Amino acid sequence: MNFYIKYNILVCLIFLTEPVHHVTGQLWSYPNRSEFQQLEKDIEKAQSDIVDLEAKGIERHQNVQNDIRILQLRLDAVSSIGGSSSVPCGLIGLAIKDGAHYLLQKRVNGAGWGSRQNAEAVMALRLADPRRFSVGKSLINYDYIQGVNDMFIELISELNRPDFENDTLWAHGKLAQYMVGLTSACKDTQSFYGFDVASIVRRQFNTFKSFFKSQKFALSWVVLALCNANLTEETTAMDILSANPGFYTFGIDEASMIVMALSCVDNSSYSTAQRVAEDSILNGSKPDGSFGNEYTTGLAIQALTRYSGSRHDVYGIIQKAQDWLARNVIGKFANVAMANQVLPALARRSYVDIKDLKCHKKPNTAPTLSASGQCIHVKITAKDNMINKTPFERSWVANGNKGDSMFVVMQKLEQQEPSFNFTSITFSSGEFIRSIVGIATDSGLRQYWQFLRYPDTVMPTGVSNTYPNNMDHYVFKVTTW
Ligand code: B12
User: Fold this and answer.
1) pLDDT at site 367
2) Phi, psi of 350 (to 5 degrees)
3) How far apart are CA 97 and CA 303, in angstroms?
4) pLDDT below 70 — which residues of the chain?
5) In the listed set 325, 356, 387, which residue is the last one of a domain according to the structure?
6) Which residue of 3, 20, 251, 410 is surrounded by the most CB atoms within 10 Å?
């Protein structure tokens, strides 16, 4: 569609700066001033094209229009200082928002998204924005939490049916998918209102082994269910999944699920099968960037975020596919399954990332409505030449909101980026940073993580009392006093 093509350039520029989980290390570059002027022109043009959209009566154009207004505000803020944006401030961010709107509007109180659809909706919403699971802090999160509730109620009532365990509608991978949904909603799958869901899934796998041998798409859900819940894998399931690499009854869709399942378990015995499946996905890349339809492209992108091979062009392939996907789904989310396969891909996550989602946050750390809503991007570098045997240096870009303290920005980064984590100790003067990415300072050796504004200005305030601006760069460096 005309309108989306015009956004294409804008998004390409924006996503130059977005780091990919598991695929690349650091990618950090700013579009220059003239590129930003181009962005501004694109926005203007896109606005005039809204009229076309309305004339054509595109479904949910109202939402899209509203989102574009928000996008424009954000881009205005970014371009005024010449910096750059990243997810969710671009066409892909817009597509994520549209998909989330679609799901939240489709939910019916008490019934959720309908029979056997609740887990897909819940996990899609959480993977699209992991911060959604911050209880009671925003209206959108409130709707999501109601959806989680609907999923629980549906499942409790199903589990209580006497014939449930052998009902193939559930036993052929659906309960396993629900187990992933439960884990994504921070629920213990071994103790779910008196049911050990994980054990039921294992029994179903054993009862229906011959079905799973011929349907590895469904079997992948069994493996993902156990793995995301941090439970021991079923060796037979892994052996079936990794058998006959290169032969996929259901094509790229199946190969993608197999990659996710094998990479989740992360056992070198299965790395060849994973690599063959990855190559098969990459061979299916089409000139327009897609891998087939929206479902297939969504799953392929998710799988490629787990890429384990040595090709250097995978980052670009993911970007191109995401761009195609965003343009093809905005205003056109068709059902829960599509949202489930597409939303994680747009957010550059996969079903495997569910195991790393944070569940038990300290109080008062959730994003609040009081934040002005303006996106800020803060670069954080950690350096250590003392504790680690080899010198360590790594940078991340955190997405926060204007008004967030540095501490809150770091907590948000922890939720956004699996490779970043930190611990702190609470004092009357605020939070004292104790460790970053597992590198913990020893106060007995007079070590501490010094907090600096890039390049070398020692900060007069700690992380709780520092309020970053957009594009600020802070450095943490292990030092002795
Ligand atoms: C396996 C599979 C099948 C198998 C299911 C056999 C089985 N017992 O497992 C078979 C070969 C029967 C099949 C048939 C079709 N499939 Co099919 N199928 C899949 C696949 C690869 C995996 C589904 C799965 O196992 N999910 C995991 C389990 C746990 O979830 P589930 O909800 O229980 O899955 C069930 C439903 O997906 C259902 N199902 C399968 N295909 C379709 C298609 C439609 C339109 C519907 C409503 C349901 C449905 O069967 C699954 C197993 O019970 C998906 C790929 C994907 N990306 O989702 C495509 C997929 C769902 N199929 C698709 C299509 C197009 C079809 C067909 C319409 C193809 C055709 N033209 O004949 C037919 C359905 C025709 C009909 N009778 O209505 C599309 C649906 C796109 C859409 N919604 O428009 C998908 C997404 C593939 C794709 N990338 O395009 N399919």
Assistant:
1) 41
2) -140, 170
3) 22
4) 1-89, 133-140, 360-373
5) 356
6) 410
Instruction: Give 146 Cα–ligand 1 centroid separation in angstroms.
Output: 28
C-alpha of residue 293 to centroid of ligand 1, in Å: 13
The alpha-helical segments, DSSP class H, found in 305-392 are: 314-329, 336-346
Backbone angles phi and psi of 91, in degrees to 5? -60, -40
170 in the same domain as 35 = yes
The Å distance, Cα 19 to ligand 1 centre, comes to 33
Q: Residue positions in the annotated binding site?
A: 253, 293, 341, 481
291 and 281 Cβ atoms separated by less than 8 Å: yes
CATH number for 423: 2.170.130.30
Residue nearest to atom 30 of ligand 1 (CA): 174
Domain shared by 97 and 206, yes or no: yes
Ligand 1 binding pocket (C-beta < 6 A) is: 172-174, 177, 215, 217-218, 221, 250, 253-254, 293, 295-296, 299, 337, 341
Range of the domain at 424: 375-480
pTM score, whole prediction:
0.69
Query: Per residue in 66-79, pLDDT tens?
Result: 555 555 555 444 43
Angle at 17 between CA 14 and CA 22, to 5 degrees: 125
Q: What is the pLDDT of residue 361?
A: 47
CATH assignment of the domain containing 251: 1.50.10.20
Q: Please tell me the total count of domains within the chain.
A: 2
Domain closes at, from 356, 386, 406: 356
In 3D, which of 336, 392, 384, 318 has the Cα closest to residue 18? 318
Decide if 368 is inside a domain.
Answer: no
Amino acid 301: pLDDT: 98
Q: Is 362 inside a domain boundary? A: no
Residue 369 lies in a domain: no
Specify if 361 maps to a domain.
no
Residue of the nearest CA to atom 46 in ligand 1?
A: 337
Q: Which residues are annotated as a binding site for cyanocob(III)alamin?
A: 253, 293, 341, 481
Residue 54's pLDDT is 54
Both 280 and 422 in one domain: the answer is: no
Q: What's the confidence (pLDDT) of residue 480?
A: 94
Which of 470, 473, 474 minimizes the C-alpha distance to 83?
470
